[in-house]
Amino acid sequence: MDDLFADFLAETREMLEALGGELIAWEDDPGDRARLDAIFRFFHTVKGNCGFFDFPRLEALSHAVEDVLADVRADRRKPDSMLVSAVLGIIDRIGDMVDTFEGGSEFPEGGDQALIAALAPQGDGSNDPLRLAALNDELAQSKVPAGRRTIRLPVELLDRVMSGVSDMVLARNELARRLRETSLEASVHEPFDRLSSIIADVRDAMTRTRMQCLEGLFSSFPRLVRDLSAELDKQVQIEIDGADVELDREMIEVIRNPLTHLIRNAIDHGIEAPAARLSTGKRPVGRLCVGARQSGNQILIDIVDDGCGINEAKLVDKALAAGIVDPVTIGRMSAQDRLSLIFEPGLSTAETVTAISGRGVGMDVVRASIERVGGSIEVDSTPGQGTRLTLRVPLTLTIIPALTVSIAGQKFAIPRSAIEEIAQVETGGTEITRHGGTMLVKIRDSRLPCVVLADLLGCETDAADDDRTLIVLRLGGGELFVLAVDCLHTHEELVVKPAAPAIIATGLYAGTTLTEDGLPMLLLEVNGLAKVAGLQLDALERSARHDAHEASGAVRTTPVLLFIGLDGRRKAIPMAVVDRLDEVEIDAVETEGERMLVVVGDRILPLAGADLAELPEVSLRLFRLTDGMREIGYAIRDALGVRQIDAELLAAEADGEAEGVLLIDGEAATLISPYRLFARHAAVPVRDELPLCHLPAGDTWLQNFVRPMVEAAGYRVVEAAEAELDLAIIAQPGESGPAGARQVIRLRSSAMEAPDDPDSIYRYDHTGLLSALRQSGGRIRL
Amino acid sequence: MSALLLTVAIAGEKVALPVDHIESVNELELLVPVPRSPSHIAGLSTLRSRVLTVVDCRCALGLGISPNREAGASAAIAVHDGHAYALLLDTIHGVAEARSDPFPPSGRLQNNWADMAQGMVETDDGPLLLLEVAALIAGPPEARAA
C-alpha cells in the first residue's frame, strides 16, 4: 500500500508540473480542445485515484473542476481568465496537499469551499481576481512545511550512477595499491582513509537505492489468485508474508515471471476443487502462502500450498517414459531427487493441459531463470498435504561474495554460493583415481567426478595431483562435483562486471572483476565448467549424491564455535580449545611492543584476534582458549553458537591464524587454527600448571611474610593439604609437612645452626630461602 | 568528406580505423590470458580500473598470432556495446584526414581482410584500407560461429 501511495503522489506531482504550462496556454487559446482534454483527463485521474485512497477533500476538489471543465467541453460555458485562475488555484491546492501527504501529516482544514465557489460562473468577474489572490494569501499562511520529498528518476540513470560507484571502488583500490608502492602513503594516509569511507558510504546508499520492497511484486498476487481460482472453480485464500523484504530491483524483475508461474501451478495442479478437498477432510478453501525472508545475503521465497502434493510415482513414470532417467538411476535416487525431476524439461503431472499452466514447459524454465542469477530452487512435497517450493536468490547481482583460487599463477574467482566444501588431497580420507581420462575423487565415503581446472582451461601447471586443493561445487540442481585447483587464496566481495560476449561465449566465465592489486580476474561459471568438462550430470552425480546420503551417518563431525571477530568477519574455532567466554573492561588491554596483553582476573594473557581491528570503547568480550598447558585470550565481537562441521574439512594455504575457509549456515567463515594461534601467542603457562606450595593457614607469619615471596617465585599457594603438592613450608619446630608434599622447606627461628634439624633455613635468610624455592620447584615460570 | 582516421599498422600493413570509434590509444599495462577463449581474444588488460578485453587484430584478420601479445604493446581503446576493448596493433602512426568516402577496393582482398574492411579511403598519404572496429571485435568467421 505504501508503495502504491508513493507512486500515486509522485505521479500526481509530475502531472501537476506538466499541467501548469498547459493551463496557461489554454487560457491564451480557449478553443484548443487538445489542451482542454489533457487538463480534464488530469482531474479525472486524480479524482479516480482519490476515491481509491480515500481522500474525500482531494476528490471533492478535482470533482468540482471536472464538472466545470465538462461544461466547457460541452460548450455550455466559455472559458475566461476567472475560470483559469480558479482552476490554477485548485491545482496549487492539490500540489500543497500532495506535499503534506508526503510529509505524513494532515492538511489543515478549511478553504476548499471558497476555491470551489470560485469556479462558479461570475456575473461580473472584474474584481474577482483580487478576491482570489486574497484567498491564496490566506491559504499560504496555513501551509504545512513539506516533509520527506521523493523524486522519480529514470532507472537508466540510477544504473549509470551505480556503475559509476562500482568503478569508483575499483579506482580507489587501484589508488591504494599505487600509494603502497610509493613513499607518499604516510602523508596522504588520513585523507585517503576518509575518501575510502566516503566511497563505502556512497556505495551502501547507492546499493540501497537499487533495493525495492517485494511489496510491489507481491501486491499483484491476490488479484492473480482471485482470477485464477474463479476460472478454475476453486476457492483459494492467499497469505502474503514478508512483503517488506528488500531485493535488488533487477532481481525482482528476474523472479517476477517464475513466481507468477509457480503460483499458477499451485492453484492449477496443487489445490484441489472444493468437493475433492471436502472428501479428504480438508477445508473447502485452499491455502496458498507466499513468504519472503532474508537469510544472510540471500532472499528465500517460499510458495506453500495445502493441496494434493506432487504424485511422485506418476512423476517417475513420466520421467521413465520420456527417457529422462533410466530405471537403475531411479532406484538409487532419494525421494528428494525424485521430486526434483519436476524441474526436468518436458515433464508435467497434470492430467489435463490447461490454459493456465500449460503443458509442463515451465518448471524447467523457472529453474533455469533462477539459476541464471545464481539462485536455486528446491521442492518438497507430501502427498495429500501440499507442496513447498523454496526459491533462493542472491540479494544483488553486482557484488558477489567469491573465493579466489589460482592455477599456474593466475587467479580466478568462484562464486561462494556454489561452494559446498573444501578439502585437501593430502589429508586422509580423500583419494583420486583415474579412469580412462576421467577422474574420481573419494571424499569420505562418496565418489564425485573431478575436474582439474588447469586441464580444463588448458593451462600448464607443475602442481602435482596430491598438492591440489579440492573444492566441492554444487550445481543448480544440487548435483556435486569436485574442482581441483592449485592453490586457494581468500574470500572477498567482488564487484563483478559482465565480460565481453566473446568471453561469455566460452561458457566458462560469468564476468570479470579486478583484484586488489589491480589485475583483471575472471569469475568462473560453475554450471558452465561442468558442461564444458563434459560431466554426465544425470547419471553420475545423482548416484554419487545418493552414496553420500547413505554415508552421511558415518561422517565424523566436530563442534566449532561460530563467532564474529573484532574485525567483523565470521570465524569459527574448534570447541575443544575454548575454555570460557569472558568480558573485561577495555582498560584491561595493554599493548606491549608488538604483543597485546589482557588482564583477566588475576592473570595476564596474550590477546589474539585484536590485531588490525579497532578495539571497542567500553568492554571487550573474549574467549579464553587453552591447549591444556597455556592460556590465551581471543577478542571477539559476538559469539553466535556451536555448529557441527565435518572433522576432515580443513583446508587453505592461508597464512596467519586461518586454517581455512568453510561454509557454515550457508555463509563463509574463517576457521581459526588453534595450532597456529598458540604457536604465535602462547607464552604464559596456565594457572593450574603452577607448582603448588602449602603454607599452613594458621601461621600468620608465613602467610604475611613469606607468601608473597613464594608466589613471586611462581608457586600457587594453598592452605589446605592436597594430595599433590610440590612443596610445603613449615615454620613451627617439630611439625611435619603434609603427606602429599614432594619437598619440604623447614624454617627455624634462630640464626644459629640447629643440630637437630640440619636442613632447615633461618627464617630471615632471604637468599637461602629463595634458592631453596627455586631448587625445590624445578618448574618455575619461564 | 573530412572524417578523421587513426592510421595504424597491423601485420606490417598500414591501415586506417575510424577515429569516432576509438576512445584513446595506449600501451597495454598488462595482459592476463583468458583460457579457452577464441583465438583473437588475447586476454584481459586494465586501463584506469576498467577491464579491457584485448583483441588481437592480426589474428582477427586470419594472419596468425601477433608477436607482441604482452604488456607494453600498442593498443587502440574502443567501446563497443558497452564493453571496453583494446585493439592490439603493431604500431600507431597518427591521425589523418579522409580525402574520400570509402570505396570498394579494386582487387579481391585476401584472408579475412574483406570481412574486416569497410573499403578503401583516400588520404594525404595515399589510399588506405579502412577497417571496421565491430568486425575486428567479433573476430574471424570461425570465432563468430562458436
Automatic annotation (TrEMBL), chain A:
Record-linked CDD domains: HPT
Question: The CheW-like domain covers which part of the protein?
Answer: 399-535
- Function recorded in the entry: Involved in the transmission of sensory signals from the chemoreceptors to the flagellar motors. CheA is autophosphorylated; it can transfer its phosphate group to either CheB or CheY.
- Provide the species name: Novosphingobium mathurense
One GO cellular component term of this record is: cytoplasm
Q: What is its EC number?
A: 2.7.13.3
Modification type Phosphohistidine: residues: 44
Recorded catalytic reaction(s): these are:
ATP + protein L-histidine = ADP + protein N-phospho-L-histidine
User: Which Pfam family, just one, is annotated for this protein?
Assistant: CheW
Protein name, as recorded: Chemotaxis protein CheA
Write the record's keywords in alphabetical order, separated by commas: Kinase, Phosphoprotein, Transferase, Two-component regulatory system
Biological process terms from the Gene Ontology for this record are: chemotaxis
Question: Could you tell me which residue ranges the HPt domain spans?
Answer: 1-101
All copies of the Histidine kinase domain together span: 146-397
What are the protein's GO molecular function terms? phosphorelay sensor kinase activity
Query: InterPro entries this protein is in?
Result: Bact_Chemotaxis_CheA, CheA-like_dim, CheW-like_dom_sf, CheW-lke_dom, HATPase_C_sf, HATPase_dom, His_kinase_dom, HPT_dom_sf
Domain of life the protein comes from: Bacteria
From TrEMBL, chain B:
Note the superkingdom of the native organism.
Answer: Bacteria
Q: Which InterPro entries match?
A: CheW, CheW-like_dom_sf, CheW-lke_dom
Q: Which Pfam families match?
A: CheW
Please provide, in alphabetical order, the Gene Ontology terms of the cellular component aspect for this entry: cytosol
- Entry's Gene Ontology BP terms: chemotaxis; signal transduction
Please list the residue ranges annotated as the CheW-like domain.
2-142
Q: Which residues cross the membrane?
A: none
Q: What is this protein called?
A: Purine-binding chemotaxis protein CheW
